[in-house]
Amino acid sequence: MTFKIKVIFFAGLLLPGAAFGSSDETKEALLAGRLRIENSVFNSAFTGKETTTALLKDERWIELVENVLGKQFSSNSYYYMLGRAAEGMGSKKAAVIYYKIALDKNQYKYDCNNHMFGDACFGMKFPDVATNRYNTLNTPSPSQTMKWLIGEGPTVKEVISSTNVPIAGLLTPTPSLSKKKIKFETEAEFLERTRKATERQFVSYPLKTDDESHCRTLYDHDKSKYSIAECRIVSSATPALEISGQGETFTLANMMDKREIKRHVKRAFYFDANYAWSSEFHISRESASALDKDLHVGIEFEEFSVKSTCPECEARDRNENIVGMMESIGALNKRPANTTSIDWRTDAFRTGYIEEFWIHIISLNKISRIIVFRGKDQRIIYQITPEL
């Protein structure tokens, strides 16, 4: 549930900020990351900069939030202010949500980018200030990282005792988190379900060192040094895994014949998080070459959700709606519409297959650790422990 500012007219007067009944409600919505700013033509964004900046300076967070919402002005600068308030009140997770909105032009109406003037921009330079706060909160501190020399770190089994699941296995529905017994559920089944729903899980995948957009590795022959620069061990921009295979078949039929249609399915799995790793090792060329092909990433976590989209599937649904509408109009006019040339089923019937490309975005919560390890001996060489 998200909260939006409402505009209420009463006896000809505009009452901004009337959607919130109490400061406690505002605080709860802020710290949950649910506040959203609904824009109004009656906004007051271009006055009162001094008041807003004073509330920020004095760390009067709830008053700052109420001041921002009362402006009724959907801009990146005001979402930035919500982020500062959430951060100031101790919710880094909510702050990241607001900073992320401030960096996404699709989620607000007015843009303060590259403006150094105007009350609505507070004399700040956007998106720089929002980018700086977002990056700061998404970068683990040095105290949260551990490094080992090649072959000297603990093994994955010594550190990770969680259930190992393949990335594609995250598409399988997980047990319900409900702590109430389900009808006809035995006590043993209830205990097993709640245990599985809260136990930690572990996924791993190869690091793509041959893809420079994902990871840059170099070898200095003079210094016998293998370097890893800004390697995206967890990335929302590049897929952690890409797989292809056959999906479920289905049957299409016309007045003359019917045919079994195959699905050629491609899947790309992304994580909704970003962690980079840089390091260097003084090892031989042969050792560096072997390591370059044998690096893996592992993530231990407790909760997750998956958002899946299929552009081709959505296009077929739209196509069916158009075809159906044309056929209905034709029937009403007693002139049957010829939809054969535009119906996706015509081409599928001719070729015997359809193609689907699924994009799966995985959001992991309660991450306990992210590791980089060598596949050969399963020994860890790098570990991040993010703040929960």
In short:
With 388 residues, this protein is α+β, with helices and mostly antiparallel strands.
What keyword list fits this structure?
28% strand, 30% helix, alpha+beta, five-stranded mixed sheet, globular, six-stranded mixed sheet, 11 helices, 388 residues, 18 strands
Describe the structure.
- The chain has 388 residues and is of the alpha+beta class.
- The protein is 30% helix and 28% strand.
- The strands form 5 sheets. Strands 5-18-17-14-7-6 form a 6-stranded mixed sheet, with no helix packed on it. Strands 10, 11, 12, 15 and 16 form a 5-stranded mixed sheet that branches. It has a 3-stranded antiparallel sheet with strand order 8-9-13, with helices on one face.
- α3 packs antiparallel against α4 (76-88) and α4 (76-88) packs antiparallel against α5 (92-102).
- The radius of gyration is 27 Å and the shape is globular.
- The two termini are 23 Å apart.
- 24% of the residues are buried.
> Taking all residues together, what is the mean pLDDT?
83
Which bin fits the share of residues in helices? 25-40%
Question: Structural class, please?
Answer: alpha+beta
Shape: globular
Which H/E pattern describes the elements? EEEHEHHHHHEHEHEEEEEEEHEEHHEEE
Through-space gap between termini: 23 Å
Note the total helix count. 11
What's the Cα radius of gyration?
27 Å
Question: Strand tally, please?
Answer: 18
User: Stretches where pLDDT falls below 50 for ≥5 residues?
Assistant: 1-20
Q: Biggest sheet: strands side by side, in what order?
A: 5-18-17-14-7-6
Strand content: 25-35%
The biggest beta sheet reads: 6 strands, mixed
